[in-house]
Amino acid sequence: MINSSLRKLSAALAARKISATELATLFLDRIEKLNPGLNAYITLDRAKTLAQAQAADASGKVGAQDTPLAGIPLAHKDIFCTKGWRTSCGSRMLENFVAPYDAHVVEKLAAAGMVTLGKLNMDEFAMGSSNESSYFGPVKNPWDTARVPGGSSGGSAAAIAARLAPVATGTDTGGSIRQPAALCGLTGLKPTYGVVSRYGMIAFASSLDQAGPMAKSAEDCALLLNAMAGFDPRDSTSLERPAEDYARDLEQPLAGLRIGLPKEFFGAGMDADVRAVVDAALAEYRRLGATTVEVSLPNSGLSVPAYYVIAPAEASSNLSRFDGVRYGYRAPEYGDLNDMYSKSRAQGFGAEVKRRILIGTYVLSHGYYDAYYLKAQKIRRLIAADFQRAFENCDVIMGPTSPSVAFAFGAKSADPVQMYLSDIYTISTNLAGLPGMSLPCGFGAHDMPVGLQIIGSWFGEAKMLQAAHQYQKVTDWHTRMPENLK
Amino acid sequence: MSLTPEDVSRIALLSRIELSPAEREATREQLNGILGFIEQLQAVDTAGIEPMAHAVDVVQRLRPDVVTETDRRAEFQAVAPETEAGLYLVPKVIE
Amino acid sequence: MSQWEVVIGLETHAQLQTKSKIFSGSSIAFGAEPNLQANAVDIALPGVLPVLNREAVVCAIKFGLAIGASIAPRSVFARKNYFYPDLPKGYQISQFEIPVVQGGGLAIRVPQGDFLRGVGEQEKFVHLTRAHLEEDAGKSLHEDFHGRTGIDLNRAGTPLLEIVTEPDMRSSAEAVAYARALHALVQWIGICDGNMQEGSFRCDANVSVRPFGQKEFGTRREIKNLNSFRFMQQAIDYEVHWQINEIEEGRAIRQATVLFDPDTGETRAMRSKEDAHDYRYFPDPDLLPLEIDAAWIAEVKAGMPELPQAMQARFQADYGLSAYDAAIVTASRGMADYFVTAVAAAGTANAKTIANWIMGELAARLNRNDTSIEDSPIGATQLAGLVMRIADNTISNNIAKKVFEALWNGEGQSADEIIEKQGLKQITDTGAIDSIIAEVLAANPKSVEEYRAGKEKAFNALVGQAMKATKGKANPQQVNELLKKKLGG
């Protein structure tokens, strides 16, 4: 059961081979046993989970055509507001914050009949690539607990990799779904900006943030995305488009698919072990009938510095609401109003969050706005235009998700810039608003998983999922799990 | 461009984040490292390029003028650090 | 003193008359208990997002059309970042680089001279820089909560139009005249209720002085939150004197934000604004560009009321009102509505008489009772009924004043009812008047003699007696004629 796909779980539930309550219990028991060693979940509430499962069993949704995911458990990244459950965003600032409302994504998945197992650890306010910035301690990579799971959706990735949840939600501002998916041997997808509502998802960088599914396979991602996506009038950036079945093209063969390989993604910077595995995956794609063509994204090298202007700028403003007045952490001792603000925020936020707020404040401040913020926004347009040109010659773009396999704890924490470069291949899609995904394509150094990144054109999710699914039909990387957790 | 200790103090004040003197110096070094990295943007010619503020090129949707919210004060204030008589309390503000 | 030229620009925050807030579905009704109308978006819970209220944009378009401004086809919402407890997000959503309304202006009439030398008016045009949409902040309540400040966020998110003038005004009188004209206009077009006590219409005045002839502006100080026209006048006058005095004493003016204290009549610098601000404006990534196309503008225009200036021209051309009278009866939406309703009921031939009654008897009475025309005990159709009875000679002007008084006091529903009930109908029967005159002549032989001896005054006394005998109801003109005839011409 713990290794089953969503379709298999759905069929088992529909056939009454197992109830939602039994399924939830199975995962809760496993979580109880294995989570202490991984720290993937930071909030669990067995009673609530079982109540939801019992409600699903009683609802008539299980086995119904329009609710194929009913009765299936999942877990939410702790960035999504969940009514009645603590929503901490990985921060001391919200250590005791119980949201009085559900995020749109949480609402939608509950309406689909899915059962919440708990809330997943993450880098504080989604700022990090290793999950070391969480106030609740780092998440361990199930493949090697001395290594990071990636970030910021590291809890989501570790939970699925250890089979502590069949699927999970994640969010991706610069690679936060794809990079941990790659480092933990999973499939994860960041949709086109605006496809999934941001309502109730605690904002990091509003113009880049996008929620998406994390799962073992592309097929599971497609099914979960079907339930997550959709217009929401409460988010001005949510797009009003006709509903899509993201699984519609999964079984279409890949003959004639044109895969663009950006030469900038295959230069120096990628570790040799990662390169070998990615090259092998591309060879597999050619065997499946796809053709590869070299494309160029000449400004992609600027994506990390542009991102580290835009994202902190937006974050510095988005995180101003955490002031200790209406909710969240307030310092126990303070003098006047400004002292209360400054102490509450100094104590409530961790080092990386503070660093980014300070950088963001600086690049927006008087006299520097044009040189930094406006400049970065112009470069953002150049980066988006690069993709537009590239997609004239290909259907999808492929390359590595991360330049290396999962690194050891502490390896990059001393130098922020080194950490930022972990996202060198993923950030440009967020800047351009494009969909991107990562799927497991083999193992590199230290027998750690390697991810293949697929970048689609705007609203190209179905095509990317088709490409990933066809590959997963002829490979078994996505079914592997760490030996010691079996 | 390199931040002085005064710059760091100014940014920290604007951000309402208290920094101890020791933190200030460490922060200054880290921020300078990041700013040095960002500096490469300056070399790019962006003349005539329109800044891109949003990931998608769409326009603002408008909401009908309808009152949809009801009173949820008790629920909202249950998570507040300090309230009285329905008000959020803060240290005395002097105008 | 006369060597100094005063330069004033005004920034006005007009709360827009929508039902819900600018970025959330909370009510904006005034007077609710603290924080009952402060919902998830207004208190800035993590994860919530703003969505723009269409009606707030309609209000901005109306205003732009009313002042002849250009309405930006594409405008942008920006975040103005600062920490303050009544600002839950830590930023205010406003418009910065590209506001929705650009340019335009307002013609104002500025009182000239003083009451001793006679009052006149001068017309002046005040240019507007811009008007932009933004959200209001909450309120800080400073009364004692154990030495702490209480925060009420009911007002947070109320839609505002911030209307900014060029530094065109040269005296407190001009500033007040502009503020009054703007106040009337926003109510006229129905975008703001103009209630200054409740803070629906608040002005900040940027004041500086410079020697006459100097091109550069002096350093300005901004007087915040002027919520009455009287305070505006007092605050600016005090500030101007203070600035001139400072300069003459050799001290430079430093840019500052100041508050006016009505109790002392003085302005003082605000402490909370002391630390230098750096608002770090940038386009709000949660809101997309606002687009307003020509079709939408045309639709809004079609639904707008006739503007005061167009109405004035029409009243002059069609009703023969003077420019001054036309301006007075269109000084406010309430006044104009009253006038238009009364004219519709009494006929256009009576328009001038109606205007005279509104500006004369009615204005005086309203003023004395501190009542607005909207709350006038005498409605527009009642006044029309009164004027019609004057026109058809049912009552004289003098009796009409009695009827007006009776209407004001609620002694009857209509002029007709009062005339009937109180028997005020003018006596026009020649026979009846004749016999009354005969009695008067018989009773006043002395006056008759004096008149015959050439004393014109005596004639008036006899008319007076005749009128008195009819309790004023006789037609004075008829009495005149018949009396003359009786006395033998």
* Class per helix and strand makeup of chain B: alpha+beta
Could you say what the CATH topology of the domain at 5-43 in chain B is called? Histone, subunit A
Low-confidence stretches of chain B: none
Query: Roughly how many Å apart are the termini of chain B?
Result: 37 Å
CATH architecture of the domain at 5-43 in chain B: Orthogonal Bundle
Helical segment count of chain B = 3
Strand residue content of chain B: 5-15%
Question: Mean of the pLDDT scores of chain C?
Answer: 92
Radius of gyration of chain B: 22 Å
Q: Helicity range of the residues of chain C?
A: 25-40%
Q: Please summarize the sheet with the most strands of chain B.
A: 2 strands, antiparallel
Oligomeric state of shown chains: heterotrimer
Helicity range of chain B? 25-40%
String of helices and strands of chain B: HHEHEE
Radius of gyration of CA atoms of chain C, rounded to a whole number: 30 Å
Mean of the pLDDT scores of chain B? Answer: 94
Most extensive chain interface and residues per partner: A-B, 73 and 51 residues
Structural class of chain C: alpha+beta
| Shape call of chain B | flat
Describe this structure in words.
The complex is a heterotrimer of chains A (486), B (95) and C (489). Chain A is an alpha/beta fold. Chain A has 15 helices and eleven strands. In chain A, strand 10 and strand 11 (449-456) form a beta hairpin. Chain B has a domain at 5-43: Histone, subunit A. In chain B, a hairpin with a 2-residue loop joins strand 2 (83-84) and strand 3 (87-91). In chain C, strands 1, 3, 7, 8, 9, 12, 13, 14, 15 and 16 form a ten-stranded mixed sheet that branches. Chain C is elongated and about 95 Å long. The mean pLDDT of chain C is 92. The chains are: A alpha/beta (486), B alpha+beta (95), C alpha+beta (489). The interface between A and B is large, with 73 and 51 residues. Strand 3 of chain B pairs antiparallel with strand 11 of chain C, so a sheet runs across the interface.
